[in-house]
Design a protein that fits this description.
GO cellular component, one term: nucleus
Helix content: 10-25%
Order of helices and strands: EEEEEHEHEEEEHEHEEEE
GO molecular function: DNA binding
Distance between the termini: 99 Å
Strand content: 35-45%
Shape: elongated
Organism: Asbolus verrucosus
Number of strands: 15
Mean pLDDT: 82
CATH class of the domain at 68-157: Alpha Beta
Subcellular location: Nucleus
Family: Belongs to the TBP family.
Strand order of the largest sheet: 7-8-9-10-6-11-15-14-13-12
């Protein structure tokens, strides 16, 4: 008969010398025989900690385009008085020698001179600026002028951004020779870049205007 050992009120299987271990009777009255490595208790391995792929990113500074200025020529003489009488959404400023015309889509304003030069402002992208310029040229063409869309170019882009911190403009202007700070004339510092060519208006609140 198989010998059993009692330890702490529980039965423990004993080896009979042939490499097999005899386990105590199971619930069905049968004796279980298994190899020592099979009878070893199974230990659960701890779950691996989840890998966090998200790396803490530094805050990005977004530049918002507020105004794109473009100019073009219609290569013909324009009668400003006739445009003021027959045009839509126009304002004739005789003292300035130009007419102001406005569009709703895209929301832009054009300054028109009798020489045929037109300057368009108010667009928020280069695509909007070109669409608005062509629509202004079409409006002049419908008034009876022999318009030819020519010499279109973007002359200025205005963008703004806000730094997540305040700026000591006195120390900034002293450290950088390119900076021009005249507190009696303007509350911000004028800083000019050579490459790329741009002008920055820097304020103590952290607001920066790029033109």
């Amino acid at each position: 008969m198989m010998a059993t050992a009692v330890q702490k009120n529980s039965l423990k299987g004993l080896s009979n010398g042939n490499g097999l271990v005899h386990q105590p009777l199971n619930g069905y009255g049968e004796e279980v025989v298994c190899a020592p490595e099979e009878c070893a208790p199974v230990t659960e391995q701890p779950e691996a900690a989840p890998i966090n792929d998200s790396v803490a990113e530094e805050p990005e500074i977004d530049i918002m385009i507020n105004n794109v200025v473009c100019s073009f020529s219609v290569r013909c003489h324009l009668n400003l008085r006739e445009i003021a009488l027959n045009g839509i959404n126009v304002e004739y400023r005789k003292e300035n020698g130009k007419i102001t015309m406005k569009l709703r889509r895209p929301y832009t304003t054009a300054s028109i001179w009798s020489s045929g030069k037109v300057t368009c402002t108010g667009a928020t992208s280069e695509l909007q600026a070109k669409i608005a310029a062509r629509r202004f040229a079409r409006c002049l063409q419908k008034l009876g002028f022999k318009v030819r869309f020519n010499n279109y170019r973007v002359v200025n882009v205005l963008g703004t951004c806000s730094m997540p911190f305040a700026i000591k403009i006195n120390s900034f202007s002293e450290r950088h020779k390119e900076a021009d700070y005249e507190p009696e004339l303007h509350p911000g510092v004028t800083y000019k870049l050579q490459n790329p060519k741009a002008t920055l208006k820097i304020f103590s609140t952290g607001s920066v205007t790029v033109t």
